[in-house]
Amino acid sequence: MAMVEKRAERILIVDDDPRIRQMVTRYFEDEGFVVHGAADGNGMRKALADHTIDLILLDLVLPQSEDGLALAREVRAGSDVPIVMLTGRDDVLDRIIGLEVGADDYIPKPFHLREVLARVRSILRRRKPAEPAQSHADPGQTLEFDGWRLEIHRRRLLNPDQQEIELTTGEFDMLTVMIRNAGRVLTREMLMDQTRGRQFDAYDRAIDAQIARLRKKIEPNPAQPTFIRSVRGVGYIFTGENNG
């Protein structure tokens, strides 16, 4: 029986500092990744056009007219490729905005390469579809609410018109947790534990930003949500009817 060769995962590092690009490239290549580097938006666009990129490490502060937030917004407008923002240690507002425009995670500088690798692997692992069942479909692999359908094994969301709605890795994981805990109030800490784990540095606005993005995609009126409701001073509750 012929062996199927596994494709090496491709990482794109967008940072104007050649030392950081070289350091990340060398480390990730030693771990079996294919790494492409870009110093600016033009280099990023070329890499995305020429290669199938599995994840982008994107610096927030770039010297050209296009900063990291603008580039993240541009990528997210046409792709759900995971984005990890590289930020300054004290740039809390920038981190929040980065999550709001669709980044999956953030890592403050200076960073340890082992931590970067761990976060990248975690995101890529969560993004991979689960193996299909051998004999019959597992009913737990599909969650349904009010005409919506979340297919866990395919990692996709279908609206009541059977149109696929693109979700980032973080958004998909967040919605999965919310649906599985329908009717239960979840604190921000509980949501962070179940979607990212305690190894990630969490703060309330990170969860709020992700919830806001989800509401824009599934709520008829995001300003008056009917599925994901806020519980003042506590967290959130999913009120859609879980038929899965």
Automatic annotation (TrEMBL):
* Swiss-Prot/TrEMBL GO biological process terms: regulation of DNA-templated transcription
Q: Which UniProt keywords apply?
A: Activator, Cytoplasm, DNA-binding, Phosphoprotein, Transcription, Transcription regulation, Two-component regulatory system
Asked whether the UniProt record includes DNA-binding among its keywords, one would answer: yes
Q: Which residues bind DNA?
A: 140-240
Write down the InterPro entries for this protein, in alphabetical order: CheY-like_superfamily (IPR011006), OmpR/PhoB-type_DNA-bd (IPR001867), Sig_transdc_resp-reg_C-effctor (IPR016032), Sig_transdc_resp-reg_receiver (IPR001789), WalR-like (IPR039420), WH-like_DNA-bd_sf (IPR036388)
Q: Where in the cell is it found?
A: Cytoplasm
Q: Molecular function (GO) terms listed?
A: phosphorelay response regulator activity; transcription cis-regulatory region binding
Tell whether Acetylation is among the UniProt keywords. Answer: no
Q: Which GO terms describe its cellular component?
A: cytosol; protein-DNA complex
Q: Which residues carry this modification: 4-aspartylphosphate?
A: D59
Q: Which Pfam families does its entry note? A: Response_reg (PF00072), Trans_reg_C (PF00486)
Its recorded name reads Regulatory protein VirG
